[in-house]
Amino acid sequence: MIFRVDRLQIALDKPPKPDPDGAAAVQELLGGRFGEMSTLNNYMHQSFAFREKERLAPFYDLVASITAEEFGHVELVAHTINLLLADTAFPMHPTKGPMEANKLARNSQHFIVGGPGHLVQDSLGRPWLGDYVFCSGNLVLDLLHNFFLESGARTHKHRVYQMTTNPTARTMIGYLMIRGGVHQASYAKALEEVTGVNMTKMLPLPNIKDDEIPEAKKWMEQGSHLRLYRFSPDDFRHLEAIWHGTATWADGVELEVGEGTPEGAAAKPMAESPTRFAPQYQTEEIYEIAARLMKDMPKSERKTLKRDRERAA
Amino acid sequence: MIFRVDRLQIALDKPPKPDPDGAAAVQELLGGRFGEMSTLNNYMHQSFAFREKERLAPFYDLVASITAEEFGHVELVAHTINLLLADTAFPMHPTKGPMEANKLARNSQHFIVGGPGHLVQDSLGRPWLGDYVFCSGNLVLDLLHNFFLESGARTHKHRVYQMTTNPTARTMIGYLMIRGGVHQASYAKALEEVTGVNMTKMLPLPNIKDDEIPEAKKWMEQGSHLRLYRFSPDDFRHLEAIWHGTATWADGVELEVGEGTPEGAAAKPMAESPTRFAPQYQTEEIYEIAARLMKDMPKSERKTLKRDRERAA
Amino acid sequence: MIFRVDRLQIALDKPPKPDPDGAAAVQELLGGRFGEMSTLNNYMHQSFAFREKERLAPFYDLVASITAEEFGHVELVAHTINLLLADTAFPMHPTKGPMEANKLARNSQHFIVGGPGHLVQDSLGRPWLGDYVFCSGNLVLDLLHNFFLESGARTHKHRVYQMTTNPTARTMIGYLMIRGGVHQASYAKALEEVTGVNMTKMLPLPNIKDDEIPEAKKWMEQGSHLRLYRFSPDDFRHLEAIWHGTATWADGVELEVGEGTPEGAAAKPMAESPTRFAPQYQTEEIYEIAARLMKDMPKSERKTLKRDRERAA
Amino acid sequence: MIFRVDRLQIALDKPPKPDPDGAAAVQELLGGRFGEMSTLNNYMHQSFAFREKERLAPFYDLVASITAEEFGHVELVAHTINLLLADTAFPMHPTKGPMEANKLARNSQHFIVGGPGHLVQDSLGRPWLGDYVFCSGNLVLDLLHNFFLESGARTHKHRVYQMTTNPTARTMIGYLMIRGGVHQASYAKALEEVTGVNMTKMLPLPNIKDDEIPEAKKWMEQGSHLRLYRFSPDDFRHLEAIWHGTATWADGVELEVGEGTPEGAAAKPMAESPTRFAPQYQTEEIYEIAARLMKDMPKSERKTLKRDRERAA
Amino acid sequence: MIFRVDRLQIALDKPPKPDPDGAAAVQELLGGRFGEMSTLNNYMHQSFAFREKERLAPFYDLVASITAEEFGHVELVAHTINLLLADTAFPMHPTKGPMEANKLARNSQHFIVGGPGHLVQDSLGRPWLGDYVFCSGNLVLDLLHNFFLESGARTHKHRVYQMTTNPTARTMIGYLMIRGGVHQASYAKALEEVTGVNMTKMLPLPNIKDDEIPEAKKWMEQGSHLRLYRFSPDDFRHLEAIWHGTATWADGVELEVGEGTPEGAAAKPMAESPTRFAPQYQTEEIYEIAARLMKDMPKSERKTLKRDRERAA
Amino acid sequence: MIFRVDRLQIALDKPPKPDPDGAAAVQELLGGRFGEMSTLNNYMHQSFAFREKERLAPFYDLVASITAEEFGHVELVAHTINLLLADTAFPMHPTKGPMEANKLARNSQHFIVGGPGHLVQDSLGRPWLGDYVFCSGNLVLDLLHNFFLESGARTHKHRVYQMTTNPTARTMIGYLMIRGGVHQASYAKALEEVTGVNMTKMLPLPNIKDDEIPEAKKWMEQGSHLRLYRFSPDDFRHLEAIWHGTATWADGVELEVGEGTPEGAAAKPMAESPTRFAPQYQTEEIYEIAARLMKDMPKSERKTLKRDRERAA
User: Fold this and answer.
1) CA of D181 vs chain A CAs: smallest distance (Å)
2) Residue B48 and residue B46: Cα distance in Å, rounded?
3) Confidence of residue F207 (pLDDT cuts 50, 70, 90)
4) Pairing verdict, β F227-229 and F2-4
5) pTM exceeds 0.90
6) How far is CA F207 from CA B185, B199, D285, F204, in A?
7) Model confidence over F148-175: pLDDT tens digits?
8) Which residues in E lie closer than 8 A to residue F64 (C-beta atoms)?
9) C-beta of residue F114 within 8 angstroms of C-beta of residue A123
């Protein structure tokens, strides 16, 4: 089971101008074979199928808790795509062709199907597939797969980074380079323990130092590259069994386990697209319905809400 | 972001004997177009793409919090399949053909690819697809889709129930009938609010009373059919805006919002399959490595662990 | 545009007992690459894309009118599958497992998804694909494709025939062998005209005489193998330009063009499956609603209906 | 079975200039999950699988007759795409690169595979799938699906309309908005009858009045939005059982059932593309063959043809 | 470019009786994600895309020459499937249902599509996909992928081995365990050279000694596990740069490079299936045509043929 | 089995400037339904499944030896795509966006996944599928398929030729027009022998004379259109049984069988892309490792190498 917290792992701003072709490229990091849907679902399903999870707790806890972080990665990539697609329609009457420019965009379904919005696809508009999940039940093989998967994911992040200078996309990618690097290293360390093979010597893979990328370096300076988060109130207590010692592949500083989640940031509310209900869409009417529903909520609950708002202020 | 809790929503036992063809049928509820991967990902991605989430909080909170429950549903179905596949290999030397019986099983990849274990596929062995996610950005249309999706999911649960008398499968299906029914009703109520159309009158759809199914009735007696869980420590405070009043489609009793998650149950550890590393697999060696790693964990953490175990006891 | 006539091309009876694995095999003839969905859609889309249809009328008319017959072929195969799936559920309470036997059936989605019913899939449960349509815009190439498609389709019919002795399946296959043979020959003749290559000499392909198959021979005796139907009240007047002369590949008798459609037969109404709304499904209630709706229909129309019934009697 | 009539539902003209990227976008309305291939095949296969069609005649007749109209919708969208692709090749020698501009077009298979011509794909070039057909055998669920499908289809039409100002595309879309709206309303009314839920109150969905769109308004003025066509000489006599009363969702005027088909218009013959047989393609030779074949047709038939031409004049 | 030699890598006999379900399982080793089509195409396409192949000759030669061996592996698996499918049709008249038993077989397309024969599918009948090819252009990542691919392939071979006791299937699998093991080790050694990570310590993976499997042990006794073949008359001269030293993961004996190909064996001619042309198929007529064609071949060539036969004798 | 020769069938040069959209179009000739992956795999798998190959040697030898040539065709198309993608990244620091221009390219996976490099996809980025292989076991039907496949492949080559004036692409296409034409004619001749139908009269199909295309004409002048290569040191001795006589479809000159392979040309080494390991990629370090490995190779082998180099000089 999971608890959900309505925050992003990092703050993301709307880019200065719409970038639909950038959005199309970033889809690879969401729904491609090496995208975040793949990391989320690989670890999630491996944890569901794990055998002997008590006797193999250090390994189970690793896979199970990283699953939780990956949920937030999918969330970050999806928000990035949606921010890049913001304002792609002009607020004009449908007969004027408010989305005509998007006829040339690389992913037309962002507009026709998504409204506009992200899709569960790769950069060519092909759907994410359940077949991208590898779950063999052989511990060494699954760890080797996970190390390979993170290495491919890191490669794709570097390539998309080089294809776009969009600041929102790069902010997201820089952060995920660091976090993906932590996961890559943790699977390398797990493999080292179970096989005796010095996998961390393969890092960084691809062979690019994170501190060359300003958007990644920023997080290194806060030690994010050394920290594996537990993402659980009470469980996965054996992360330290594997995640300890020094980061020989980075700067040789001490690794650490972080309780809970990163602090994160609230997602900035996204405005309604003028194209969704156009022409003369009655969203105002729906806002009023929602406002009335909130006003009429049972009392006891309203109190909690007030407290909640104060805390957020 | 999410926190993960290492518990299942309900307890599941290993069935009296292996049931690989039952496992193949149950896959439809995991990776089919109307399976739990679809409910999880539809609500997850709709919540990631939600516009005006503050002004439309009652609707956003509904979709976002149900996402969290669906994670646990995928978990339940996956565990069920793995329990049905337990002991499908005989503990004999490979040359004897310990999995020969499985050559006739309906899903051969359960054994060749899964080891044995569940896959992210439907009952015909076809992968779950990102295209099963519908996220149009039109609130009414998305709610209508969700109501339709839950109705199809409920139909498929009833049909798989009628195809298997396996007690583990039926325990899981009975619970998900109730929980899926709550989600179906909550989308019906949301549609009622936003459109004025009396959707709850369509319930139950399909037209089967839950109390006819013993494995579902059991949860009705505990009021589970009236309760929508928040699945969040602090967020999604407006569930009550929509989920209140009486369940006219059921027994007319008062609806309620539950804080946190259901209590749930620990998953029973699954034993290693003799086929995974056979022949003469050194899992013992791996267990020893894991035991040593746990013993050598940094001190501060071991204390926490001890406390943890006491609490669990 | 089309008019629809609510009759099957031939009469089909329910087989003596359910045959779910036969139904799974017959799916190849509906949704396989060489199934009737492929013949229907190839000719339909080729006719939609046809250039210079007036100057090339003999060829256009051929492709366009065969399209219409193929609609009825899909209809026949679908009905066959549904008849083979009839009575696959026992009329018992869901808790008893009325569809338990179907857990072992080759196509589990016939039951979970179809209720039971046919699907737009091949014999392995894979969906029919738009990519099966070949429409190059090169007349010779398209005719060559169509000849090849019909040859593959005929081969698959012979193989499915040899895999089942189910009388309903064989009645349908026998008829389609004859009709598919007419289409195969008509594309061969069209190729002969346009290229001068004596394609009809390749017939029969595969090299099996239709009169060896009793279910096909029956239709030869009625001359069905010599007749190309126009399937249109006023259009496609140039079928005779290609479809004339003697059937050198068969018995050397004169070819003919039939106006309209074959006489056909009414489909026998299929009874509701007890599993669809079970348990305690209120289909009776729906029947009553339908009866009331029919009774309350505007008067002028009821008269027509009466006439209609008399004619049918 | 069907009869085919060689007319389009409405007249379509060649646009002033080629529009290959518009053609790529319009493909979504042909082969996308919510395109016309989906509406055609859903109703077609549901009608083939319908149980108790006599006792449930009002519902069967609805689904079965709308099938026939959808054939003509696929035809209209296909013709539109082909008109947008007309003249995309320059009449020059192959060595000059007569299709070089199309290297940048969004759907390269329009040219390489189609010659140029439409494909059975969506706007991203992915094939239409048999899995888009939903046919559960549960009447309420199937009607709910059909209402949802038409709502999604209508949404996509509005979005493609806003992405193109091409007059041919908009002429087609405007007409299909009206006709799709009739189908959407007819399923809403059927659901109202069978469940008592006031579904028509959800219309228009999406919330856009058709008379805001000039290309749609034109058909409202002719009452097309009130008329459900029977598309059959003798069958489907119970459409009036559901399709009667006033269009509360539109202008409150009386609904009506139209016999037969709309009058329609002849498709303008499309000229041969110079790229198809280039270089030095002998289409002239083929035209001569065709002319000879028509001249040599059996006499009795030529008479009919003459009559036919007079009637058309 | 390649030369083709009409021999199998090892001799294969027809099994004592038909084994269609075994054939279905073995398909995983041909067309599954980790099957031989994947190893062939991964190395083939990586070698086509290789950059700096002169400066990186030891690595290029490895990938390029292993490609050639994999062609022969696909050949072996295909022949195995075809041998398991031999005699699955009874030599009786079609009306008797000579393939009726196959209606229950797990892969119905083996019979309907293949005639019977192998297909380019996995064990669930899903097609091999070009997406199974990984070719990133990053040498370390591609080698890591190849090591992982061979490890997965080896795992699947062990599992299929445990699912069948069919001697033909096991003969093939035993040989491919050894040869796949050589490829796995060669990629491990290449990774060792380029990264300094002691990958061979991970072997055997999965942790099963080949000499436990009699069908594999037989080839170890001939030293096959130590030998990498060049599969080229003149090229790929740097295999020894990586493939030298002792096999620390096996028995510590010296590695060696074999010139050319293994000696191999002629494939036993497979007899015509009685179902292919049935009924009354004129294969005899085709044999006569072929005999005449061979007799009438130009003289100079017949001489060569004679010599060829003597050599083979 | 095969031997591999490290040469291309013809020389290919890098085009004057990068052409990523041309590369995307050329993918159709590699991974499309009618691309070279399809010709390679159809003939390869047909030869693996061939029955009675001794009695039907003229037909078996034809299919088996053409397989070998097709390997080289896939190689040529892949090299062409890679040459068109060369230099698509600017040698600048990643933060500058060295691949930003490629964000607009039609196939973004060429860069993100391929690095850049070709993929096993068609021109829309969809993977090649094992389902493109047709292997029915009916000799006439398989030959008819192969003739149709080559005709479609030739059509697509002509269309891609007309979409690009890139000299590298056209050099490759011109050669493959000739070689594909030889294969098309050889299947036509085989069909003539086995059925008596004068298939070669259909040539050229499409109706374009090869000598109109300068890049094809060049090879005709060398007689390439008359020559079928054996591609085997000792096998496939019966090609002459079918491939003899005069090329009535071309210029009436005598057909001939070529021993071995065409002479071919060495592939020009492709330089490392600056984007692959960027930033500050240590390829130099890898080159040094490779140089050391070559220097340290066992002596006996170094001698061979020297000889090898002399021969090449």
Assistant:
1) 16
2) 5
3) confident
4) unpaired
5) yes
6) 64, 62, 11, 5
7) 999 999 999 999 999 999 999 999 999 9
8) 4, 6
9) no
